[in-house]
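Your task:
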Amino acid sequence: MRVYLFVTCLVDTFFPAVGEGMVKVLDRLGVDVEFPPEQTCCGQPAFNSGYREDARAVAERFLTVFGNALENSRDEETYIICPSGSCTTMLKVYYKELLANNPEQLNILEIITKKTYEFSEFLINVMKTADVGARYDGVVTYHDSCHLLRELGVKDEPRRLIEAVRGIELREMEMHDSCCGFGGTFSIKFPRVSVSMLDEKIDCIVGSGADTVVSSDMGCLMNIGGALSRRNIPVKVMHIAELLSQTGSERG
């Protein structure tokens, strides 16, 4: 089995440990991992800001880069894996709108879409494994990112992976499926509403008694982590790929 990593802008620029964590887990499971170096952004920031032509250009580049990767792969079981429900949603849901007037590109998109999975979704539904050999001695709570839950319908998969980690205790927070207030450009356009939503989320995290909050989107964790840091609240943030890459008592 071979996978091509679609590493998001946030991971590439600010949180490379997430990408490294994915590689460690996949390598542990015996999967061949490749990274197409020509890849760029999925186009979501431009799309959400109303710059559809710019977003379309990025989408077309994505089709070229990953379409060629799939075509050139000699492995029948080949997939594209992304550590973000948000970016995976952009590809699997909103590219259809951007490329609606180009039947040829839509055909390529359909092939790519069938091969593309968010990381936790891939491990559970394709690899058929929850236990990836991870260990983490701590109490964690899980934050459902909006796109992963609402657009892709992925809810149980991350929890099954977390529960299979040795030494861990998973505690559900109240309102675990409520938005953290980030929403990309939403937090910039509507800061007061965003902060109010974030305050509510932080209260739920603290109320769970967890020492670590885990999610599948670094946008959410960046937002949550910033608030925790500013308030000197000793709760760590960790992407699920980072968590699953742990093999001892280390804390990230």
The chain has a mean pLDDT of 95. The first strand starts at residue 2 and ends at 5. The chain has 13 helices and eight strands. Residues 135-245 form a domain with the Rossmann fold fold (CATH 3.40.50.11810).
